[in-house]
Specification:
It is globular and about 60 Å long. It contains 12 helices and 19 strands. The protein has about 400 residues and is an alpha/beta fold. The longest helix is centred in the middle third of the chain and has 18 residues, at about 150-170. α3 (about 150-170) packs across α5 and α3 packs across α10. The strands form 4 sheets. Strands 3, 5, 6, 10, 11, 18 and 19 form a 7-stranded mixed beta sheet that branches. Strands 14-13-12-15-16-17 form a 6-stranded parallel beta sheet, with helices on both faces. Strands 2-1-4 form a 3-stranded antiparallel beta sheet, with no helix packed on it. Helix content is about 25%, strand content about 25%. The structure holds zinc ion (2 copies).
């Protein structure tokens, strides 16, 4: 079967003929890959910045944002059946017994760094015809999400972040949880937590009781999907990005009920005032100097979430006294988040369903192009524009 392969040693990216995998244990599942999304990680691997082939292989098959169909199941498989649409998770546990995270199936919190990642680190990815993996890594997607299911994996970043935001804000003895979407299952933590008194936003002196004003930095796929998840979770959401206020990006943001703020016309110093205070920053741009500049304007009891991974550049000056004073005197929390566990995949599937119901055109428009595998070059090595570009395999 054809596959897109990266050869880090010889610094080549090319199509290869790769042997079709077969089920070798009773809990494995064979999948026909339907679509694979391309993101910055893939492009960085194709620029040989990182990306490691499996032991003994000269190449790494690329691709980690999947949508696939179950074609065969091992004898003991119970979570999926033939014909199901699934999205496969990316990270696999490290082998070290003391790593409690991996031992609990939470390799997204792996302590040792010796995890593997399909399509990224020591495991082949999904940019090929068929893949085999254990059923525990599969997440079933409803059939009617066939056209947008490839967005599940990039959406898990926001879902894992939101779960943590909610966990952090449980410190506040009033309701600050994201108001999860209608029809969404209540997650276990929500179910077991004591019901805090609800504060009606707007019914009191405005500002003082709010905790739902969010600012998203960046309008790429991670930023846009994050902004949609924040809107669904009941946040008054603003997206700050480079594109002009008249751009298609700005229209897209407004189409799902968020407000667009262009960096061309809005200075960072004025953002908090324009928004009416910032309770949550969801950073999805990977620009550290902008992020730390925005951090100065985070409100009391606010949370700042980093998801970007900037390249190392020259150090920049940051007003550390001011930031530290704010962190302490305003009870702020700053955290970074990477990868995702099963709960985030499940939340992403539920939210994607909500997006698809509320804003069908907007969700579809996040996928800019679908190209056959032979045209991988434009997406991985060229300057393919737009939002999410997808390789269509079946
Ligand atoms: Zn990705
Ligand atoms: Zn581990």
């Amino acid at each position: 079967m054809k596959a897109v392969a990266v050869f880090p040693e010889s610094k080549e990216v090319k199509l290869v003929e790769h042997d079709e995998p077969n089920i070798s244990s009773p809990t494995e599942v064979k999948l026909r890959v339907l679509e694979v999304g391309v993101c910055g990680t893939d492009k960085e691997i194709c620029a040989f910045e990182y990306g490691t082939p499996p032991a003994g292989s000269p190449y790494l098959l690329l691709g980690h944002e999947s949508l696939a169909e179950v074609v065969e199941t091992g004898a003991a498989v119970s979570r999926v059946k033939r014909g199901d649409l699934v999205v496969i998770s990316v990270r696999r546990p490290c082998p070290h017994e003391p790593c409690v995270a991996c031992r609990m199936g939470r390799q997204d919190f792996c302590f040792t760094g010796d995890f593997t990642e399909r399509g990224i680190k020591e495991e082949h990815g999904y940019m090929t015809g068929f893949v085999v993996d254990d059923e525990r890594y599969m997440n079933v997607v409803p059939a009617h999400l066939r056209e947008v299911g490839v967005l599940v994996e990039p959406l898990t970043i926001a879902e894992k972040a939101l779960t943590q935001v909610w966990q952090v804000q449980q410190r506040l003895p009033w309701e600050c949880a994201p108001t999860k979407s209608v029809g969404a299952k209540t997650n276990a933590q929500q179910a077991s937590a004591p019901a805090p008194p609800r504060v009606q936003e707007g019914s009191q002196s405005g500002h003082a009781v709010s905790c739902h004003r969010a600012l998203v930095l960046g309008a790429g796929p991670v930023g846009l999907l994050g902004a949609m998840a924040l809107v669904v979770a009941g946040f008054e959401t603003h997206v700050y990005s480079r594109e002009a206020a008249t751009s298609e990006k700005a229209q897209l943001v407004e189409s799902f009920g968020a407000k667009y703020l262009s960096a061309e016309t809005h200075a960072v110093e004025r953002l908090a005032e324009q928004i009416g205070g910032i309770d949550l920053v969801y950073e999805a741009v990977g620009a550290s100097s902008l992020a730390f500049e925005v951090m100065k304007y985070l409100d009391t009891n606010g949370v700042f979430v980093f998801t970007g991974v900037p390249g190392r550049k020259a150090p920049v000056a940051v007003d550390t006294d001011l930031l530290m004073r704010n962190l302490v005197l305003r009870n702020q929390v700053v955290f970074g988040t990477v990868n995702a566990g099963r709960d985030a995949f499940e939340a992403a599937i539920r939210d994607l369903e909500v997006f698809h119901t509320r804003w069908p055109q907007t969700v579809n428009s996040l996928i800019t192009s679908r190209v056959p595998i032979e045209e991988y070059r434009d997406l991985l090595l060229g300057k393919a524009g737009g939002i999410k570009n997808v390789i269509k395999l079946a």
